[in-house]
Amino acid sequence: MEEIQEKKRIDMVKLKKTGAIVLPSIFTIANMAFGFFAILLASKEKYVQAAWFIVVSYIMDMLDGRVARLVHGESSFGVEIDSLSDWISFGIAPAYMIYNLALKDYGMWGYPVAFLYVLCGALRLARYNVKSHFGGSSKDYFQGLPIPGAAGVMISFVLAYCMLEGEGGTRNIPIVMSLMPFVYAGLPFIVVALALLMVSNAPYAAFKGDMVKPNSIKGILLITAVLSLVVAYPQDAMFVFFSIYALSGVIGGVYNAVKGKPDSRPA
Q1: 151-to-72, 145, 157, 232 alpha-carbon distances in Å
Q2: pLDDT under 70 in the chain at which residues?
Q3: Cα–Cα dist 267/25, whole Å
Q4: What does the pLDDT read at residue 6?
Q5: 130 alpha-carbon distance from chain centroid
Q6: Segments in the chain forming alpha helices (H)
Q7: For the whole model, what pTM was predicted?
Q8: Adjacent-strand bridge partners of 204
Q9: C-alpha–C-alpha distance, residues 230 and 170, integer Å
Q10: Do residues 129 and 96 lie in contact, with contact meaning Cβ atoms separated by under 8 Å?
Q11: DSSP letters of 149-171?
């Protein structure tokens, strides 16, 4: 009788452990799936739908980590498959979408620009994994622009530009919309800059740990303001927020260099 009870206990422990690993992986695979579907949509020149599919990938990417921590299902396998999913959804998919939308107009120059973004995205994720495995990460800052942040600039540009061309909604921020033609003209340089920022040492806020406290008055006001703008002007607000975030690392890096601050060993 005792042997049967012990066996049941062992089976339950094994089942819980397996479920803790599988459950977050479902969201990770969903992240990968939506990124892949975005590539298929971009190949049919359905750029708005493709961009929104990548937005759904963001949601899946945020959920898999939180679910993993909730069920204590963190694992080395989860870290690796999560990075592969991110590479597809935030590396390959945005690069292909931007190439098909605009970079192809630059002839052969569009090839290396798009590939540089994909390559630097892979290097960024590989560096992050190495630091995660060897405990060199920080809760407050990332080393280099995170690949979801770089992808955010690109997909929000696609949404805003396509809306300007009449494919999207009618609500917009005039100043942002007036900038879209200039952004389009300088797109190759923007993509190269995003690629290089991903493999740079520029510090980027991680928005976890003690950096964001949603239970404080300032935190509540900030979150409310951001959500209000996103709801009112989804495409334009996303472009502004992601662009500010991409520039924040450059400003932070210059500030640290001027002040002579030591490296904080971010993730």
Answers
A1: 29, 10, 10, 22
A2: 1-21, 72-74, 135-139, 164-178, 208-220, 222-223, 226, 230-235, 261-267
A3: 22
A4: 47
A5: 18
A6: 2-43, 47-70, 76-86, 93-101, 110-133, 147-164, 174-185, 187-198, 217-232, 234-259
A7: 0.81
A8: 142
A9: 14
A10: no
A11: HHHHHHHHHHHHHHHHTTSS-S-
Phi, psi of 205 (to 5 degrees): -60, 135
What are the structural domain ranges in the chain? 2-259
Predicted pLDDT of residue 85: 94
Question: What residue type is 2 in one-letter code?
Answer: E
Instruction: Give the closest residue to 71 by CA, choosing from 28, 11, 143, 18.
Output: 18
User: How many residues are recorded in the chain?
Assistant: 267
The residue among 139, 143, 172, 144 whose CA lies nearest residue 239 is: 172
Work out whether strand 141-143 and strand 203-205 pair parallel, antiparallel, or are unpaired: antiparallel
Q: Please tell me the predicted confidence (pLDDT) of residue 95.
A: 97
Which amino acid is it at 147? I
Are 86 and 79 spatial neighbours (Cβ–Cβ below 8 Å)? no
Residue 240 CA to residue 56 CA, distance in Å, equals 19
Q: Which residue, chain included where needed, has tokens 């991110």? A: 86
pLDDT confidence of residue 67: 77
- Phi and psi at residue 265, in whole multiples of 5°? 55, 60
Helix 2-43 / helix 93-101 crossing angle, nearest 10 deg: 10
Instruction: Report which secondary-structure segment, H or E, holds 203.
Output: strand 203-205
The two three-digit tokens of residue 138, written as one number: 């920080």
The first and second tokens of residue 200, run together, are 């740079």
Distance CA 53, CA 55 (A): 5
Kindly give the residue spans of alpha helices, DSSP state H, lying in 71-146: 76-86, 93-101, 110-133
Tokens of 175: 């100043």
Q: Which two tokens stand for residue 114?
A: 């798009």
> In this structure, are residues 252 and 202 in contact, taking their beta carbons and an 8 Å threshold?
yes
